[in-house]
Amino acid sequence: MPVESEELRKASLFAPLSEDDMARVAAVTVERRYERGDIIILEGDRGGALYFVRSGLVKVFKSSPGGKEQVLRLIEAGRTFNDVPALDAGPNPASAAALEPSIVYATGGAELRRLISERPGVALATVQALAGALRHLVALVEDLSFRHVTARVAKILIEQDASVSASGASGKATHRLTQQEMAAMAGTAREMVGRALKELEATGAIRIQRGRITVVSRERLAMFA
């Protein structure tokens, strides 16, 4: 299926490109569609493509030999992932899967590396993207190392509530995280997330009805986070 150049331009890496360069990128980019739960890439595989989420929501995660999952990041529409192997042609450092029906563009790593060598604007955007990813990972290490489970869950709920509010304003549906998914993000067990949610509900920060979590007070959540 042909890839729309203007959709690709929404990625910060491609925003500075000329029409000719955009056409070259589009020519080596393929569109892929995924349903909820579909695996997009597997940790350790080689291929080096850069992925851009046109619509939907993608989780990037690591899995232990015992099957435990740690979610590293949620990738929303308009953002890229798998930048590192696209740049160094090495193996994928993590896996990625769709959390909701998603349309994803995959751009060949060789083309991306060519653009970086030829276009300073693309090189700068690449550095900024990698810097943002590094800051996120440093914050994740801080959360897992120093924050109590309740604080981690509160932070996840704040971010999720902001995402849902923003998507509501744009008229797009957004996936609401399950307790198991929150556990994978918080680096803990589902039972611990359940206890944290009950604690937050007791303070009036959230309300839980029929398994659906509603943020009542972002200010109280922020105090925990």
What does this protein look like?
The structure is a single chain. The protein is of the alpha+beta class and 225 residues long. The protein is built from nine helices and eight strands. A hairpin with a 5-residue loop joins strand 3 and strand 4 (69-76).
Structure in a nutshell:
Helix content is 47%, strand content 24%. With 225 residues, the chain is α+β, with helices and mostly antiparallel strands.
Topology diagram in text:
Layout: H1 5-8, H2 19-27, E1 29-34, E2 39-41, E3 50-63, E4 69-76, E5 80-81, H3 83-88, E6 95-107, H4 109-118, H5 120-146, H6 149-170, H7 179-186, H8 190-202, E7 206-209, E8 212-215, H9 218-224
Measured as a percent range, the helix fraction is: 40-55%
In whole angstroms, the N-to-C terminal distance is 44 Å
- SSE sequence, one letter per element: HHEEEEEHEHHHHHEEH
Low-confidence sequence ranges: 169-173
β-strand percent reads 15-25%
Specify the overall morphology: elongated
Compute the number of helices: 9
This entry's quaternary arrangement is single chain
Class from helix and strand fractions: alpha+beta
**Radius of gyration over alpha carbons?**
19 Å
Largest β sheet strand count, sense and barrel closure: 6 strands, antiparallel
Quote the average pLDDT.
Answer: 87
- Count of beta strands: 8
